């Protein structure tokens, strides 16, 4: 029988997964979101002893204050507070925790490499794979950020899995090859590859430099090929495996100020089909996820005009923005045996937004303004 402390930790971990799973029957208030943050920090790090952020950083300041208010609250009390806050913000949440669609150890013994896994959607994907039993390797350019992300991923999973950070630029084939060698030396296998490294910005085609266009294609398209080829050559050719490429819907209908990203993602989707056909004989499945508007990410805040967000959300058939966990769930499905006969698939996870929200920047006015 589990000890009371162990049982509480299990319920706490389940509560975290439910909170991350996106909107429940009602969206938590800002106050409840701050409480989730504060209870989590208190339960995992103890009392807040840090320095209060500056007055101009309002979000970090609010988080700091919420955590500070918990004072010397114990770890167990903080975990109970987190669970209670879930029950308050989502009355059905506690019961939902007990209904497992996917077994927590689904990927036990597997190893997943995630490029771009130190931040944003790819970090949540890594957390989700780790939570379901996979050892993970996150690859990006800045080691310090990767090390912090790995620490947080290990802390969240808390199930004996390990997240291993390796810095490399996906554009540099030699450096990336060395990163894959380190992953194999560490874990001895690479069962799953998630290609998530990407670069993007808004720019009309008429003002886009050759260098800017080339950079995005090198990170997104060439980087995806580099890592896919390395995973195949070094392990999957003899052992099989799963590759999931992260794409977007930009090229399906054409979006203004995104010719560089649209071309890069279109090439990735085409690459997905070619690799699936060629490598399927070796037991390698290759699929692509077309990502829609995902709330709470750097790309979301940088690429979408803040003053248009409410209006934009109302045009989405499902009446909400996506959450990183929506993408993570599709990734988990695609790399699982439940998708064993799915390959060369290009799967949109965007709430049908591509059919109703195209060119939200104000067409053609924004292009006319850019020429002034």
Automatic annotation (TrEMBL):
Domain (ACB): give its ranges: 8-95
Q: Which GO terms describe its molecular function?
A: 2,4-dienoyl-CoA reductase (NADPH) activity; fatty-acyl-CoA binding
Q: Which Pfam families match?
A: ACBP (PF00887), adh_short_C2 (PF13561)
Keyword terms? NADP, Oxidoreductase
Native organism: Naegleria lovaniensis
Q: Which segment of the chain is annotated as a signal peptide?
A: none
Say yes or no: keyword Nucleotidyltransferase present. no
Question: What Enzyme Commission number(s) appear in the record?
Answer: 1.3.1.124
Question: Per the record, which residues fall in region Disordered?
Answer: 1-29
Identification of the protein by name: 2,4-dienoyl-CoA reductase [(3E)-enoyl-CoA-producing]
Sorted alphabetically, the Gene Ontology BP terms of this entry are: fatty acid catabolic process
Q: For this protein, what reaction is catalysed? A: a (2E,4E)-dienoyl-CoA + NADPH + H(+) = a 4,5-saturated-(3E)-enoyl-CoA + NADP(+); a (2E,4Z)-dienoyl-CoA + NADPH + H(+) = a 4,5-saturated-(3E)-enoyl-CoA + NADP(+)
Q: Which GO terms describe its cellular component?
A: peroxisome
Bias-annotated ranges (Polar residues): 1-20
Q: Carries keyword Cell membrane?
A: no
């Amino acid at each position: 029988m589990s000890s009371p402390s162990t049982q509480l930790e299990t319920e706490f971990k389940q509560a975290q997964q439910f909170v991350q799973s996106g909107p429940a029957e009602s969206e938590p208030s800002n106050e409840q979101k701050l409480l989730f943050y504060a209870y989590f920090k208190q339960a995992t790090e103890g009392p807040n002893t840090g320095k209060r952020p500056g007055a101009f950083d309002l979000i970090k300041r609010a988080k700091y204050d919420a955590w500070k208010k918990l004072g010397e609250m114990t770890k167990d009390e903080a975990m109970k507070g987190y669970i209670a806050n879930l029950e308050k913000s989502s009355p059905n949440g506690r019961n939902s925790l007990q209904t497992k669609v996917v077994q927590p150890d689904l990927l036990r013994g597997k190893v997943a490499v995630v490029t771009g896994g130190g931040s944003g959607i790819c970090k949540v994907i890594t957390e989700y794979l780790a939570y379901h039993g996979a050892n993970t390797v996150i690859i990006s350019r800045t080691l310090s950020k990767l090390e912090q992300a790995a620490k947080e991923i290990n802390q969240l999973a808390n199930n004996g899995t390990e997240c291993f950070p390796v810095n490399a630029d996906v554009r540099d084939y030699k450096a990336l090859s060395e990163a894959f060698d380190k992953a194999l030396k560490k874990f001895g296998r690479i069962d799953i590859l998630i290609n998530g490294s990407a670069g993007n910005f808004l720019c009309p085609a008429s003002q886009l430099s050759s260098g800017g266009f080339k950079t995005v294609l090198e990170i997104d398209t060439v980087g995806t090929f580099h890592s896919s080829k390395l995973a195949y050559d070094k392990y999957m050719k003899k052992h099989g495996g799963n590759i999931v490429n992260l794409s977007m819907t930009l090229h399906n209908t054409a979006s203004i100020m995104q010719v560089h990203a649209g071309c890069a993602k279109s090439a990735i989707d085409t690459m997905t089909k070619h690799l699936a056909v060629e490598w399927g004989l070796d037991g390698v499945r290759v699929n692509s996820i077309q990502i829609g508007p995902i709330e709470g990410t750097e790309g979301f805040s940088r690429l979408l005009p803040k003053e248009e967000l409410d209006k934009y959300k109302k045009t989405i058939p499902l009446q909400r923005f996506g959450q990183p966990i929506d993408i993570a769930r599709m990734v988990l499905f695609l790399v699982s045996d439940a998708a064993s006969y799915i390959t060369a698939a290009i799967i949109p996870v965007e709430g049908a937004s591509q059919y109703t929200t195209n060119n939200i920047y104000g067409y053609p006015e924004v292009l006319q303004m850019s020429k002034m």
